[in-house]
Specification:
single chain; alpha+beta; disordered N terminus
Length: 275
């Protein structure tokens, strides 16, 4: 009789745990609330991966620093850092060519200002653009996940977009830089894998693990892996500071003189017809 009672109690506890599990929508809502209550945040990251612009695999590594500040009804954003790409030499046995790419992107609450290298020349150009719902900064493949919680679309908008191509589940609790995180596991849907394989025969990213800070909603880690189990992109926070009071001057941008400038806020000029 006692065994039956204990067995029934265990089943009841398991059922309670299962029914009490947090859904994806609930987790996103909780993290969205945490992000909205965060006045400012500063995060340092390491970045590793493989360049997607090269025909051959080109390892990359670097460091980035992201900052966010609430200023009245505006959300100010800043991302700065550099990445080194080791481009394999054409001659066998020759050392790789190291290409250092410095990046700066500032959202001053109205415009996004981005300094980035153009092509292999390394010459910096400046672009002025308008933030979109899901893109609050330039250099999207890095800044997209980093700034997700603080864009107009918020985490819900990003997860809604991801669900079109990925199956998403909540993993076990994690920790990055000493901070508790909520872990999300994303797996590319079968039909999307076929499309990606055609576009990237060297192995497209098919799984992704993202860890979001439970206190601020910020993305602290993103890891993308291809079908062969190779890491294509690995972003991880090393230091996080929140609600410490950031200087608004960090988000003021002045375009350097002499730098080639592109104003993406204006429609392209019509082509002149030959007389």
């Amino acid at each position: 009789m006692q065994k039956r009672l204990l067995g029934g109690l265990c089943v009841a506890m398991l059922c309670a745990a299962w029914t009490g599990a947090e859904t994806l929508d609930e987790a996103v809502a909780r993290l969205t609330k945490a992000a909205a209550e965060t006045r400012d945040v500063s995060i340092k990251y390491t970045v590793k991966g493989v360049s997607r612009t090269m025909m051959r695999a080109a390892p990359l590594a670097g460091a980035m620093e992201f900052q966010m500040l609430r200023d009245g009804g505006k959300t100010l954003l800043r991302l700065a850092g550099s990445i080194t790409i080791e481009e394999p030499a054409k001659e066998e046995g020759a050392p790789p060519t190291k290409i250092v790419k410095k990046m700066l992107s500032v959202n001053d609450g109205q415009f996004v200002w981005t300094e980035r290298p153009r092509g292999k020349s390394g010459i910096l150009i400046c672009e002025k653009s308008l933030p979109t719902d899901r893109q609050g900064l330039g250099e999207g493949y890095i800044s997209g996940p980093i700034a997700a919680a603080y864009t107009a679309a918020g985490l819900k908008g990003h997860f809604d977009a991801f669900q079109r191509a990925y199956d998403i589940t909540i993993g076990a609790k994690g920790a990055i830089a000493g901070r508790p995180t909520t872990v999300f596991n994303l797996s590319l849907k079968e039909e999307e894998r076929e499309k990606a394989a055609e576009a990237m025969p060297d192995g497209p990213p098919v799984t992704m693990v993202a860890e979001l800070d439970e206190a601020t909603g910020a993305t602290l880690a993103v890891k993308r892996t291809n079908s062969r189990g190779e890491t294509r992109f690995d972003l991880a926070a090393t230091e996080v500071k929140a609600n410490t009071g950031l200087d608004k001057k960090l988000f003021t941008y002045s375009r350097p003189e002499g730098m080639q400038f592109f104003d993406r806020t204006k429609p392209p000029e019509p082509e002149k017809k030959e007389q």
